C-alpha cells in the first residue's frame, strides 16, 4: 500500500515520525486536560495513557515521570505563547511596555486554566525535598525561552540582549511567578497581579 493510501488514523498509530509526534501531542494534551480538572494531583500517568490512547509502557518510554511530562506540557504552552506573540505583536510604544505585555499574556493564560497553572507551578517552582540538594527535578528550557520571547517582543528578534537586560527580564519573570502563585493561593486578585507584572517590567527595563 502506498503512503497516500494509508488512512489518517493508521498514520497516527504507526512508527513514523508523524505518528510519534501525534502521540506526543495527544499525551501532552491529555496531561493538560487532567491538570485543568484538578491541578498537579489530578495528573495520573495511567489516566493520561487512557485519555491519550497509548499503552502505559509507551507513555513511560516518552516521559519516565509525571514531572517530566508536566515540564513537557509547560514547554508546549510556552510554544503557544511564542506563536501568539509572533502573530499578535505587542503594540506598546516602548520596549518595557511590550515585554510587560508578554508576561501579562502569560498570566492571562494561567487565569484561563487555573488547574494547569497549579500543575505547572507545582512541578516548576516548589522546592525539592529538604536535603536533596544536587538531586533536583529535571529542568526544561522554560526560563531561557520565556525570557527570549519577552526580549524579542521588547527589542526585536535581531537585538542582542545585554547581560543587564537579561537579568532584568529574569527578575520580571520571578515576580510573575510570585504573583501567579499568590493569585492561585487567593492572596492577590488577578487585576492586582496583572498590575504588578506590568509595573515591574516598566521599572526594571526602563
From TrEMBL:
Pfam families: TetR_N. The keyword Secreted does not apply. Signal peptide: none annotated. Residues 21-81 form the HTH tetR-type domain. The keyword Iron does not apply. Keywords: DNA-binding. GO terms for molecular function: DNA-binding transcription factor activity; transcription cis-regulatory region binding. Residues 44-63 bind DNA. This is Transcriptional regulator, TetR family.
